[in-house]
Sequence to fold (388 residues):
Amino acid sequence: MDKILSISYGELALKGLNRRYFEDQLISNIKRAIKDLGYEKIYKEQGKLYIEANEDDFPQMINRLKKVFGLVNISPCIRTEKNIEDIEKAAIEIMKEKTKNQAIKTFKVESKRADKTFPIKSPGLSRKIGGVILKNFSDLTVDVHKPDTILYIDIKQKAYIYTERIKGYGGLPVGTNGKALLLLSGGIDSPVAGFMMAKRGVEISAVHYHSYPFTSERSEEKVKELASILSRYTGKIKMFSVNILEIQKEINAKCKENEMTILSRRFMMRIAEKIALREGIHGLITGESLGQVASQTIQSLSVTNAAVNLPVFRPLIGLDKLDIVEIAKDIETYETSILPYEDCCTVFLPKHPVTKPKLEDIIKSEELLEVDSLIERALENMKVTIIE
Ligand code: ATP
Ligand code: MG
Fold:
C-alpha cells in the first residue's frame, strides 16, 4: 500500500490524435511545475495520471498542480494490489483519516471497475466495502443521495482508493494552442487577461511599456512581480520592456492633448505587433473591457485595432470590474496590482480624452509624427527578461 496523487483531466472533450498531444503537454507542464519538489515517477493509467512522490510534499505539490491548466481534479489516494483484503484496509485507513479531520456522519462508496477481470462487479464491491466501513465506524451511516463524503474505488491495474477531489482550473494545457503576446501594464486587468488566455492553452509572452525616468524602477519591479505570479500558471514568460517616453513626448509636442491616449495606444499595438512577428507569436492580448474607461469605448477600440493586422484577444471584454477583481484576487495578482506606482499612461494623461475618435482624424494626427523611426528607436532600446 502506498500513498500517491491521482490527477484527472478533461478527457471527454478530446479525441484521437489531439488527446495524445494534450496528455504529453500536460505531463510536461506538470513536471515543470513540481520539478524542484522532486518526484519519483509520473505515469498514465486509463485516463488518469499518477504521481509517486514523498507524501510530505503532497500539500505543496497540490498547490502547484492546482495552477496547471488542463487538470480538473487532484486526489491524494492509496494505491494497493487488487485484492479485497488490501482494498478493505485502504478504505478503513482513508476513512479514519477523513473522520479525524472532519465531522462526517454519512458516506457512500462509488466503485469503478475498468479492469473487467476483477471478480467483483462495481455495485457488489461498493456494497462490500460499505459494509466493512459500517462495521468499523459505528457513528457512520450510508446515504446514497447526499452523503457527507464519497469513498471512490478505481479498479485498474492496481486499485486506487480516495475521498478527496481537489479542483483545478480545468482549461487546456499551456502550449497546446499557439502563442500570444500580452500587453502587460501594472494594473488589475491585464494579468487577468493573460491568465484567461493561458487557460485556453496559449503560451504567453509579455510586453510592458514604461516612461523611465518619468516612471520609476519600482513600477517596473511591480510589473515583473505580476509576470512572476502569472508564470505560476503559464510557465516561463519572456518579457519585453519598452521605453516609450520619446514617443509620448513627441505626441505631447505635436498632437492634440485629447488624442494622447488613443495615439499612444496605437503605438503600443504597433510595437507589440513588431515584436510578435519577430518572435513567431500569433496574436496580441489586452486587458480591455468594453466601456470601462474613455479609451475602451467601441470607437476607441476599433481605432486602436486598426493600427495592427494581428488578431487582438480581449478576454475581459464583457466582464464587469467586480468580476475581474474577483479573478485577480483568486489568482493572487490583485495585491500587487493595487500597489500605487505610476504607469506610463498616467504621465501624460489628458484631462478630457476623446471618447469617440474617428480613424481619419487619428491618421491625420499621426502624419505629424515620424511613426516608423519612433518605433524603430523604441525597439532598439528594448530589454528582455525571462520570468519564471
Ligand atoms: P490594466 O488594469 O490592465 O492596466 P486598465 O483598465 O488600466 O487596464 P488601460 O490603462 O486603458 O486600462 O489599458 C488597457 C490595456 O492596454 C491594458 O489592459 C493593457 O493590456 C494595455 N496597456 C496599458 N498600459 C500598458 C503598459 N504600460 N504596458 C503594456 N500594456 C499596457
Ligand atoms: Mg492601466
Remarks:
- Residues 185, 187, 343, 345 surround magnesium ion (ligand 2) (CB under 6 Å).
- The longest helix spans residues 260-279.
- The radius of gyration is 27 Å.
